[in-house]
Design a protein that fits this description.
Helices cover 24% and strands 26% of the residues.
Length: 643
């Protein structure tokens, strides 16, 4: 937590919204559109399906403007949020969104006229595509399942508490204003779900950041026969009427519709997939996925390979598809390389690589439905980055297919740095035994990593819920080393649980760097400041965490600041600055701040004003104080705090 986030919000329940103009409500809707759509999406019943929930959420928000000047309190029912205190328009629109979302969740009744919100939205609509938010981790899935078991008013109460940070009196007033008859019962029902409010901000519940998939292609083809016949008649008539020139125009080098494309057919031909011999990697100048040999007992099953390639090119509506951020999910550009085909944990699994992506296809043994397709970006992978791929994943365990140059595999618990790793067996194909994975764990009692040894050394890899495990390193940004030494493991033991913040983020490697040490006031011992940087395969979207470690060895590091897309702690910007509020044993509060070694001085402003030479600062303050932190580097440039 940064010092800027320590003070409570100045807004309180005493600030009520006033009259609202249409223009004022429109401005609030545009400014807070992503937040309003997220509220609608969370309150709508999951039984609608994710595609219809997305479209309905957008439709409800877009028709929530008042038709004339009205009272903000009439729809909001509250004035507790920060937006309410300065913008009655937001309070009004939020109340309208809440009311319509609750109506949309009501069942249709025979003797009652249906309400507009209960019908599927006419607009927005995307022909031929299903839209849904990006998949989250196991925690987000569990929360979505728990919310689906609640009534609509209870879901609304949970969202208002967690996403809008409203107190119970304000939630009761807002539910009553939205038409809920028994708001107290809804609040009590919401109490039955654990308060994982931070998960409500995750991409799992973001209907503004979407993935697209085709609808049921067979059904579309059947419904489109009449339209195709009519279009053919128009073409014939146009030809008979003698259209000038080249008719309706040529498509350049593109083949006519429904033409047989040789390149596309070759990519779907199981007989043309690339197969690498077992000894190629020993002689190749490259050491990456391109020299992995084909392995598995089903590499000769042409029917399985044909199904896998066809689903990759045209995944149906029943196929569960996932992709790391920034990974294209289109068909192969040519015949891909076959890495593995075999039976693992009751499923037939096929692993492909096309130079840019690793692709995993899995289908249940003896079933024709329930297939899954996973994509992971792997361009630029080196020998370490291509050491292992996930071949099978269950709710708690994972199995890897290891590279042919991996000599030994073991499991090491990051939270027990003094404990020796225990061996992880592999079969003749290179598939490891099942190991407990932290990728979907709810708590953080342990954090098992895959330890691999090759000809160049020992590495630690961690499962973050994706096909390719992430490499763990330690040290300065310019010269990180694998986190296998005693000192590196001791540092990771207290920061490993923060890896949950980068699950399903397309992470390639994570480096932990101790950038400063600081003596605490009042003889509190010596604290450490760490910067953890997660680099992605796509090169953008890195995530940086600044952490503060008190001297107690059994206490996990506290998160001081977090930033997405920041160059801090990286090769391009090998410096960082962060601060926290800290309470001494005497009960007194202090502002603590630390920067990397090239910070010459620190300065605080706002609620706390101070100046200190060097890269460390400790200053007495009051609880809940707010401070803006900045530093000056040795070359005179200004460095702002990570936030």
């Amino acid at each position: 937590m940064s010092t800027q986030d320590l003070a409570p919000s100045p807004a309180g329940p005493g600030h009520g919204p006033g009259p609202v103009d249409v223009e004022q409500a429109e401005a609030a809707l545009v400014e807070h559109y992503p937040r309003l759509v997220r509220i609608a999406y969370l309150v709508l019943p999951p039984s609608l399906g994710r595609n219809r929930r997305v479209l309905t959420a957008h439709a409800l928000v877009q028709r929530s403007l008042p038709r004339r000047r009205t009272s903000g309190a009439a729809a909001a029912g509250s004035g507790g949020g920060p937006e309410d205190a300065v913008d009655p328009g937001y309070a009004y629109v939020r109340g309208e969104v809440l009311r319509q979302a609750l109506i949309a969740g009501l069942p249709l009744r025979r003797r009652a006229l249906p309400r507009r919100a209960q019908f599927p939205p006419l607009l927005p609509h995307v022909w031929g595509l299903r839209l849904f938010p990006r998949a989250g981790g196991a925690d987000e899935l569990a929360l979505d399942q728990r919310l689906s078991a609640l009534s609509g008013p209870a879901r609304a109460a949970y969202v208002l508490r967690g996403l809008e940070r409203q107190g119970d009196p304000e939630v009761l007033r807002m539910l009553a204003a939205a038409g809920v008859e028994d708001a107290t019962a809804a609040l009590a029902e919401a109490d039955g779900v654990e308060a994982h409010y931070g998960l409500l901000d995750s991409p799992e519940f973001d209907p503004c950041s979407l993935q697209a998939r085709p609808t049921d292609l067979m059904r579309r083809r059947q419904h489109g026969k009449a339209a195709l016949a009519a279009a053919a008649a128009v073409v014939v008539c146009g030809t008979l009427l003698g259209l000038p020139g080249d008719g309706w125009g040529r498509n350049g080098a593109a083949a006519p519709s429904y033409a047989r494309n040789p390149a596309a057919e070759a990519a779907l031909d199981p007989g043309k997939v690339k197969r690498v011999a077992p000894a190629v990697w020993q002689l190749s100048t490259r050491t990456d996925f391109s020299v992995w040999p084909e392995r598995g007992g089903l590499v000769g099953d042409r029917a399985l390979l044909r199904r896998a390639l066809a689903v990759w090119a045209r995944p149906g509506g029943s196929v569960r598809t996932s992709a790391t951020p920034g990974t294209p999910v289109g068909p192969p550009m040519g015949p891909p390389q076959l890495l593995y085909a075999g039976e693992v944990d009751g499923a037939r699994v096929v692993l492909f690589h096309d130079g840019l992506r690793a692709v995993r296809y899995a289908e249940p043994v003896g079933e024709t439905s329930g297939a899954a397709l996973d994509f992971a970006r792997t361009d630029g992978a080196d020998a370490v980055g291509s050491s292992a791929l996930v071949v099978s994943r269950s709710s708690a365990a994972v199995r890897y297919l290891t590279a042919p140059w991996v000599r030994e595999t073991a499991v090491r618990d990051l939270l027990a740095p003094a404990k020796e790793p225990w061996p992880l067996e592999r079969d003749a194909e290179g598939v490891t035994g099942a190991m407990l994975s932290p990728a979907q764990a709810r708590g953080c009692a342990s954090w098992n990593t895959l330890q691999v040894r090759d000809g160049a050394g020992t590495r630690l890899l961690t499962d973050l819920g994706e096909l390719v495990p992430a490499r763990l390193t330690s040290g300065p940004p310019a010269a990180p080393v694998d986190a296998t030494g005693a000192e590196a493991r001791a540092g990771w033991a207290r920061t490993a649980c923060q890896l949950a913040a980068v699950r399903s983020h397309g992470v390639r490697s994570v480096n932990a760097w101790r950038f400063a040490e600081q003596r605490l006031p009042e003889g509190g011992g010596r604290a450490a400041w760490l910067c953890t940087r997660a680099e992605t395969w796509r090169g953008t979207g890195s995530r940086v965490l600044a952490q503060f470690q008190v001297p107690a060895p059994d206490v996990a590091a506290a998160l001081a600041a977090k930033a997405d897309g920041s160059p801090a702690c990286g090769v391009r910007e090998p410096r960082v600055l962060a601060g926290v509020l800290w309470q001494a044993r005497s009960g007194r509060w202090y502002v603590l701040a630390a920067g990397s070694e090239d910070v010459a001085s620190l300065r605080t402003s706002g609620g706390v004003t101070a100046h200190a030479k060097g890269h460390l600062l400790a200053l007495k303050t009051e609880p809940g104080a707010r401070a803006n932190l900045s530093g000056t580097l040795t070359d005179g440039t200004t460095l702002t705090a990570l936030r």
